[in-house]
Amino acid sequence: MSSDIVFVPLGGTGEIGMNLNLYGRGRADDRDWLMIDMGITFGDGSIPGVDILMPDPAFIEEKRDRLAGLVLTHAHEDHLGAVPYLWERLRCPIYASPFTGSVLRRKLTDVGLQNEVALHIVPLQGRFQVGPFDLEMVTLTHSIPEPNAVALHTDHGIILHTGDWRLDPRPVIGEKADLEVLRAFGDTGVAALVCDSTNVFVEGQSHSEADLLASLTELFGRFENRIAVTCFASNVARLETIARAADAVGRSVVVAGRAVQRIVEAARENGYLLDVPPFLDEEAFDQLPREQTLVLCTGSQGEPRAALARIAAKTHPRVMLEEGDVVVFSSKVIPGNERAIARVQNGLVKLGVKVIGESDHFVHVSGHPGRDELETMYSLVRPKISVPVHGEARHLAQHAELARTWGVASVVEAENGSVVRLTPGKAGVIDEVPVGRLVLEGNRVVPLEGLLVRGRQKVVFNGSAVVTVVVDGWGQILAEPQIAAVGLVDDPDDEVIGEAIDAIWKAVDGLSKGARRDDDTVRDAIRLAVRRVFRERLGKKPMTEVHFVRV
Ligand SMILES: [Zn+2]
Ligand SMILES: [Zn+2]
Q: Which of 44, 192, 226, 397 could pair with 422 in a Cys bridge, judged by C-beta atoms 3.0 to 4.6 Å apart?
């Protein structure tokens, strides 16, 4: 039997977020596996109490003795955020660049895994072996330091997994994308390109981070009171751009939000952010004149616990904004966050603060490739096969169509769980494996489709009623039944509760003598009677529990 190479995404293909990619090598029943990235997605409030979602790694967990390692392309949460929660299920070595390693080490320390995980630091452009996989890191540009594509060198050509990328000719931080290596790969022969689809609908080429420096400097120069800027903490190039623009207009940068401080530390450990004036702690806020202050804060997506939301709600312990100040959103709106962002912006406007976003001024550049950059990538690497990833279905379909028009012989439209044969022979989806979603619930990781999360949703949407009934051995009710209703009535003595209690008496009286001696029969009769009252009187189907006590 011939040995083939397959690509199996468990997350991130058909959605933007929670990337988890697998490459398998060998016969179908005897494969070695490599994982690239293991990320999370932040909840959008649709599931009560759930802030963090991640792919279910069950498929690879079963085969973890054949999982050679996990390679991280870069330090964004949608690529490494699940490592602290899922690594113990896999226990494989991890490979990352120095900056990504620094970010991951802090996360592992938070959960006490820092001494358990074998974390191998791979230099930029490093070539390294992970089990039977011959790998090479390729430097690209993105909205975080050290973004890498991973090249798998195989007997059937190179497989290039791009990770998140763009081609910024003038990045503010780090190296330019290594176009020469990409071209050389194309000359050698690229069997397959597995590529970022996020900005496939964006015409043309995005601006350079260096262009943004001029734009922000000009913008900051217009204002006389305080300026606050919010962006993603991990966008170290943006932190540098903001710091330089602030310095150019004579302002000091005060950092509000722990996430920024952590990234600044990780960046400095790796030689970034060393040429800008120091970032000051929140304590410095009081001492700076209004016209010399620039507050850099977290919360660009409206996250309710982040610094900006607290400033807008006037609950931040140290930083305050007032009439005449301005807040610049140097970030894009991630779909799903519109309402949360609007809530924060409304709060700021009510304080008399001016809000400036992408539609008002040039304040942000994307980290993902627009159509021109995608076309450049295809023309450099000239892949035989294209597999669009890192996008919702609409992004993947559009990317597939473009790849065809750019002359790619074989375009495979995969989704999470697809087993895609890349080489040898005809490329295509040859099988499917189970996929699922896990959520972080308090400090546990539980299935999204499990009873716990479903029960939580049911209670939130429909309320709950807990009924307590005490009967004797013959099934006679011994005391007035009790109903504890949550989220159903404003007044605990509401008459609907009385009606439900009457219905319990009737339901039990209506049972035959024999039926009354059977616990399950009595419990079911009570539950049905109570639910009927709530359904008919309130139009609700609450989660109904019966505590049934026989004495
Ligand atoms: Zn990403
Ligand atoms: Zn990214």
A: 192
